[in-house]
Amino acid sequence: MSELLLARWQFGITSVYHFLFVPLTLGLSILVAIMETMYVRTGNETYRKMTKFWGKLFLINFAMGVVTGIVQEFHFGMNWSGYSRFVGDIFGAPLAIEALLAFFLESTFLGLWIFGWDKLPKKLHALSIWMVAIGSNLSALWILIANSFMQEPVGYIIRNGRAEMTDFFALITNPHVFYQFPHTVFGGYVTAAFFVMGISAYHLLRKNHLDFFRRSFKIGLIFGVISVFAVTGVGHLQGQYLAESQPMKMAAAEAHWETANPAPLVLLASIDEKNRSNSFEVAIPGLQSFMIYNRFDGEVKGINELQAEAEAQYGPGNYIPPVTPVFWSFRIMVAAGSWLVLMALLSLYLWKTGRLETKPLVLKALIWTIPIPYIANSTGWYMAEVGRQPWIVYGLQRVEAAVSPSVSAGEILTTMIGFTLVYGVLAVVDLYLLLKFIKQGPSDTAAVGTVDSSAKGVSLWT
Known about the structure:
15 helices; single chain; mainly alpha; two-stranded antiparallel sheet
């Protein structure tokens, strides 16, 4: 295998692994802050125990996110020096601000929160976890500002073969950020909401700590219902924006080869990338035009026409991303999101009618729904990054020009195997710790009731 392919695999593996921890950190930090705020406002000890229990799970996840995130920074200098030389002045600025401002804020107040229990005044202690939550979300904002430059370069000139920043304000107000940031953070909030709901469902099924987990479920449910509709709405707007700013990515996501007006929405397809067509497809006429223009007509350019336009603009070459994985990752993301909307509405209805705890199948489904937001987040991110190919910076630098010329395939393969093995061990440790504390429950609260027959077989995946 070539250096380029191995470098892409290594970055993909480490990025997806890191991204497993980021969304839960974004959302769970806010949920823990809400729980502690309710404790400060009401003085109810249950909320204090909730803050400590969910806070412990947050800390385990946060630590893994930090460890795996550090590796990402080294990639740019080691395997992608061509990229760093070309856009380092621009890409490095938001990453530096993220480290010096957001991560510093997050880490400092996290230390105060961990060691400040019963030492700091209650309101100041609650403020600490809110600052952690704000820092986490600010960190995501700066990283997405950096990524948005790769998706839609703004505020630069090309001088001496390098991209140099000319307008910092344009960089931070990149229109791509206004869609990508809310879509990403709301995805994180959904992840945390279903994490809390699923674990609460596990304990409700087993009749453990009933008051504790009923309150936890309610907070997660309200947060989840709001977030799941927010991420869906923003995702729709983001799709409309991408159809204008990155039409090739959206055409690949729809396996839309020929320009059409009105354009059908392809639900399923057998994609023939070699002949640039679909050998079989199930499509709904006019629906893609409706999704983009909010009406059932309107031209949508196909991959073949966009390829011809790219060749005319950038010269001969293949400007078509891998259509099959982009197409199916998009559908997996949408299917996962639809399932989350369904479960959120069903849970809300059963909760409002007081029948949630009489529906063991729904509670069990909620436990198995915990991984679904992770699948949606990962496939959505995969589509966003792979759909940009062959560009590493859209319209400016191709991926093959970004890889380091002095790193051999053997060196990349060796480090990739090392990262994969270490990450595998870390995953086992992380899952072990999470399951241990989840099953243990709030340790300073007495369990209530006994496991009934409907909870048999409920063991949270073990």
